[in-house]
């Protein structure tokens, strides 16, 4: 990749919108818009403790990860039936298609639903049906990653895995999310070892609010293939060297980091530093209904605030395909599509 790509600066936002990309860090429950929350609440006879959509949206004012998670789990409580899970995923996939996302690897949090008495099949079948239809109907390939909630016990994670195994062909991997501080990766070492034996891909949130030590243990004990967030890695030079050497991708979520006050301003975000150090960073939306933007909003606002260039845009899109769990022939096809898009924007 050349270090500069000659694109007129005023055309950069359009290039960011148009370029094909993969989204690798999206919690499907975090795509649940207030309008759909109220619609599902009505459908299922659930009471939402806010007067209307605007009042709910006004409550989206977070101080840290936990303040977000409390409202995110409350929002998810309107999901009851298979059709609800389908509708949520379908709404996200339509938005993704509009952003030229051609591939999505989608997190879901089964424990937040099974703990309310919703069956595992209800969750997975609804989400999976949307993923299956997105290919032919929207031109988006999509697969599912089951996340364990790290504030719950190892035993709860093992039981969740057991419940999901009859549907093993409907998800491609496992992740680890929820409250990071005080719940280090090593708490789930044995669960992740079992998932490895089952041939599941492994990823984990680490270094969002937590220290670089959590990124090290996610790599060395959980044996993850990607780190979700990982932005705290820049505090540890040896870790940065390790991530660069092993091409471990970081699924970075700039608007999430802004809204959860990981960085005070978007202009202070370290994504440029990560890329320039040779790390395989990617841009993602995390919980777009809560953080004020889907994937292209993340790209456009971050580039505007930090001064990233067309060469960075190319690298981020290329990294998203390279770090995905699709096969190599598809990666090559998407790389060709990316090259063709950039060729249309280059000044000659
Ligand atoms: N971090 C941890 N857990 C989460 C997040 C996040 O950003 N979003 C949804 N669950
Ligand atoms: Zn996340």
Give the secondary structure arrangement, pairings included:
Layout: H1 12-18, E1 21-27, H2 34-44, H3 53-58, H4 65-76, H5 82-98, E2 101-108, H6 110-114, H7 120-138, E3 141-149, H8 154-164, E4 173-177, H9 189-197, E5 201-206, H10 212-220, E6 226-229, H11 237-245, E7 249-252, H12 254-259, H13 271-276, E8 281-283, H14 288-291, H15 295-306, H16 310-322, H17 328-345
Parallel strand pairs: 1-2, 2-3, 3-4, 4-5, 5-6, 6-7, 7-8
The structure holds hypoxanthine and zinc ion (ZN).
Hypoxanthine binds next to helix 4.
What does this protein look like?
Helix content is 50%, strand content 13%. Helix 1 packs antiparallel against helix 15, helix 5 runs parallel beside helix 7 and helix 16 (310-322) runs antiparallel to helix 17. The chain has helices spanning 12-18, 34-44, 53-58, 65-76, 82-98, 110-114, 120-138, 154-164, 189-197, 212-220, 237-245, 254-259, 271-276, 288-291, 295-306, 310-322, 328-345, and strands spanning 21-27, 101-108, 141-149, 173-177, 201-206, 226-229, 249-252, 281-283. Strands 1-2-3-4-5-6-7-8 form an eight-stranded parallel sheet. Strand 4, helix 9 (189-197) and strand 5 form a beta-alpha-beta unit. It is globular. It contains 17 helices and eight strands. The mean pLDDT is 97. It has one domain: Metal-dependent hydrolases (TIM Barrel), CATH 3.20.20. The structure holds hypoxanthine and zinc ion. Hypoxanthine binds at residues 27, 30, 65, 72, 177-178, 205, 208, 256, 286-287.
């Amino acid at each position: 990749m050349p270090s500069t790509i000659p694109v007129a600066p005023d055309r950069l936002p359009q290039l960011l919108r148009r370029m094909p990309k993969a989204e690798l860090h999206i919690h499907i429950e975090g795509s649940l818009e207030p309008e759909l929350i109220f619609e599902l609440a009505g459908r299922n006879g659930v009471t939402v403790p806010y007067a209307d959509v605007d009042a709910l949206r006004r409550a989206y004012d977070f101080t840290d990860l936990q303040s977000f998670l409390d409202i995110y789990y409350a929002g998810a409580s309107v999901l009851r039936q298979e059709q609800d899970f389908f509708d949520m995923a379908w709404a996200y996939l339509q938005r993704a298609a509009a952003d030229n996302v051609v591939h999505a690897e989608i997190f879901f949090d089964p424990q937040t639903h099974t703990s309310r008495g919703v069956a595992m099949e209800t969750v997975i079948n609804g989400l999976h049906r949307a993923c299956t239809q997105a290919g032919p109907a929207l031109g988006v390939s999509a697969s599912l990653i089951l996340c364990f909630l790290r504030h719950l016990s190892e035993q709860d994670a093992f039981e969740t895995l057991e419940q999901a195994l009859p549907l093993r062909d409907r998800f491609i991997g496992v992740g680890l999310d929820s409250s990071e501080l005080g719940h280090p990766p090593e708490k789930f070492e044995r669960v992740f070892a079992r998932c490895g034996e089952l041939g599941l891909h492994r990823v984990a949130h680490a270094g969002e609010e937590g220290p670089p030590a959590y990124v090290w243990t996610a790599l060395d004990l959980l044996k993850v293939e990607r780190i979700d967030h990982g932005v705290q890695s820049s505090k540890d030079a040896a870790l940065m060297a390790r991530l660069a050497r092993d091409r471990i991708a970081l699924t970075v979520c700039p608007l999430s980091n802004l809204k959860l006050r990981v960085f005070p301003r978007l202009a202070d975000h370290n994504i440029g530093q990560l890329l320039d150090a040779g790390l395989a960073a990617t841009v993602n939306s995390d919980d777009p209904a809560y953080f004020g933007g889907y994937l292209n909003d993340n790209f456009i606002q971050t580039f505007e605030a930090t001064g990233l260039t067309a060469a960075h845009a190319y690298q981020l899109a290329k990294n998203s395909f390279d770090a995905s769990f699709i096969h190599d022939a598809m990666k090559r096809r998407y790389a060709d599509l990316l090259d063709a898009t950039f060729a249309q924007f280059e000044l000659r």
